[in-house]
Amino acid sequence: MLSLVLGLFLVSLVVAQTTCEDSDGLDYFSAGKTVVTSTGTLTVSDGCLSKITSLLDSGSPVVQTLVDNMVAEGLITNDMITNENILLEGRCPSPLPDDFDSPLIFNIAYECPNGCSEGACLEEVGNGDSDEPEKVPFFRKIINWFKGLFGR
Questions:
Q1: Looking at residue 18, what is its pLDDT?
Q2: Mind spelling out the 3-state secondary structure of the chain?
Q3: pTM given for the model
Q4: b/e 116-125 (16+ beta carbons within 10 angstroms → b)
Q5: How far apart are CA 44 and CA 125, in angstroms?
């Protein structure tokens, strides 16, 4: 808060500063949320692009506009629209903008090597019995818990 004394009046100006907090950092293997606060609050959840693009067949103009904006702003390419391995990871850009026109700047597109599910890349489990990757959320949660304890 910035305060100025003008004559007999005390004028207080609230300067809105943008803050950003990412629950999982830039961790493609954990589903997280990025919370941006400025004059309001914006929450960006990590998600698989295929979950959004699967709704294109419904004919929803909202979904079509969202996908068109992602392409126009360079977040994704037209080739990525049908790729089921694309993760939209929420992130805090650096430097943090004081003002922004689109919430899409708080996302990054990443191609998961083993597929995308529920807002996270699938991890490959080397059991040798199957070529199918498996998600290992329990172990990732333990690792993230330790990272949180030690501030890493």
A1: 82
A2: CEEEEECCEEEEECCCCCEEEECCCCCCCCCCEEEEECCCEEEEECEEHHHHHCCHHHCCHHHHHHHHHHHHCCCCCHHHHHCCCEEEEECCCCCCCCCCCCHHHHEEEEECCCCEECCEECECCCCCCCCCCECCHHHHHHHHHHHHHHCC
A3: 0.69
A4: bbebbbbbee
A5: 29
> Residue 143: inside a domain, yes or no?
no
Q: Which residue carries 């100025």 as its tokens?
A: 4
| 11 in any annotated domain | no
5 in a structural domain:
no
Q: Which residues constitute the domain of residue 34?
A: 18-123
Q: Which is it for the CA torsion 134, 138, 141, 146, positive or negative? A: negative
The count of structural domains within the chain is 1
- Assess if residue 47 is contained within a domain: yes
Q: Which of 142, 144, 139 is nearest to 125 (CA)?
A: 139
pLDDT tens digits for range 86-142: 999 999 888 887 777 778 888 999 999 999 999 999 998 665 555 554 554 544 555
